Amino acid sequence: MNTAYSLSRKQGWRRFTDTPARVRPERLSAAAVARLAPAERARHNEARHNWHANFGTIATPQLKEVREELELIVASNRQDSDRVRGAAVIDGFPGLGKTTTANLFARDFDRAARLLDGETTAEGDERIPVFRVGLTSNTTLRTLNRMICEFYGHPGAAHGTAAQLATFALDCVLKCDTRVGIIDDVHFISQNSRDGLAVSNHLKWLANELPVTFIYAGVGLTERRFFDEGLSGESTALAQTARRWTRLEVATFKQDDSWTVLIKAIEKQLVLTKARPGRLVALDGYLFERTGGHIGSLITLVTRGCFKAITTGTEALTWELLQTIRIDEAAERSRQRRAAECRRRGKKKEGNQ
Questions:
Q1: Model confidence pLDDT, tens digit, residues 157-212
Q2: Cβ-defined contacts of 320-328 (< 8 Å, 24+)
Q3: pLDDT average, residue stretch 63-79
Q4: Going by C-beta distance under 8 Å and a sequence separation of 6 or more, which residues neighbour residue 286?
Q5: Banded pLDDT at 276 (limits 50, 70, 90)
Q6: What are the residues facing 183 on neighbouring strands?
Q7: Most buried of 102, 167, 207, 331, CB within 10 angstroms?
Q8: Mean pLDDT of the chain
Q9: Which of 171, 197, 181, 206 is nearest to 84 (CA)?
């Protein structure tokens, strides 16, 4: 069965919004797994692999806070079409769940809008409450318009000038009664290049012309001076972006109770025969050391660890097993720096005694 789909196409987005939640596989004892016929055991393990890779999003405090802000911004944007709606931008370091937060909010908004207003508009067109596109490092004004048209499957998406594609995009939004637009990876826009500045200005044009609430997501936008639009000095006061966008920051975890609560929530999702309550929580300090509080790195470590635990017969996330798992390079490098800092502190403490 082909499970691949793209959220940058309406068919993929609809599949994302309408697919029911996964059913958690039954947690069997080691003896019960051993009694399964080879084919049954293979299917059981395959179901567990899929579950551990897709067991859903943990409602972290950061996610809840950003979601509440998004609900407020979108729900209060009831201005008539001749007025500009405020936008939301989810900002933060990589691997903290910015894209996931935007997608999950938009999924629920999409479901609620179609439930309330129906699957078709008053004119009989397909109702598409949300469109979503992801930018690339070479996005131009024309490619941005084309990506919006491609989401809707507009027949003219492959042709036309930037202006024509912008008109097609506007028509799609109006006909399909779209009310939220997700634009991901806006950090790829360079305010200091001609194409980047054109795209940035075009985003403001889209906000003026399209009766939707835009939700942007990007990495380190404040540090990139994205809200200043490349301006400096007194000119920054002229930047429209900073006046129109509400910045919502997704922060890293600290090694406190919220981190422990997250580990407990993840532990409850594990379908391993030798998993025991509290075993993963006992490693919360180690897990923080490995990931630096980045939930993306943590989920990668857990997912790969679960796969190896099943395939090797370990059937538990132990310190020894997790030590054999490599994750993203940023996490590995920061772990080395933290370890080196701890060693320096230890030597300094010994020298003062």
A1: 988 898 999 999 999 999 999 999 999 998 888 767 777 778 888 888 888 888 89
A2: 322/283, 322/286, 322/287, 322/290, 325/301, 327/290, 327/291, 327/297, 327/300, 327/301, 328/95, 328/296, 328/297, 328/300
A3: 89
A4: 319, 322
A5: very high
A6: 133, 216
A7: 102
A8: 86
A9: 206
pLDDT at 170: 93
Only one residue has tokens 């998406």, namely: 157
Confidence class of residue 68 from pLDDT cuts 50, 70 and 90? very high
**Locus of tokens 């379908």:** 271
| DSSP character string of 47-77 | HHHHHHHSS-----HHHHHHHHHHHHHHHH-
CA–CA gap between residue 272 and residue 212 (Å, rounded): 45
Q: Which long-range contacts (CB under 8 A, 24 or more apart) does 2-10 make?
A: 7/103, 7/132, 7/134, 8/132, 8/133, 8/134, 8/147, 8/150, 8/151, 9/150, 9/151, 9/153, 10/128, 10/131, 10/151, 10/152, 10/153
CATH 2.60.40.10 fits 61-250, yes or no: no
Indicate the burial class of 109 (C-beta count within 10 angstroms; 0-12, 13-18, 19 or more).
buried
Task: Please check the confidence at residue 1 and state whether its pLDDT lies above 50.
Answer: no
The reported pLDDT for the residue numbered 268 is: 94
pLDDT for residue 231? 42
Domain boundaries, the chain: 22-55+254-352, 61-250
Residue whose C-alpha is closest to residue 89's, from 251, 241, 273: 241
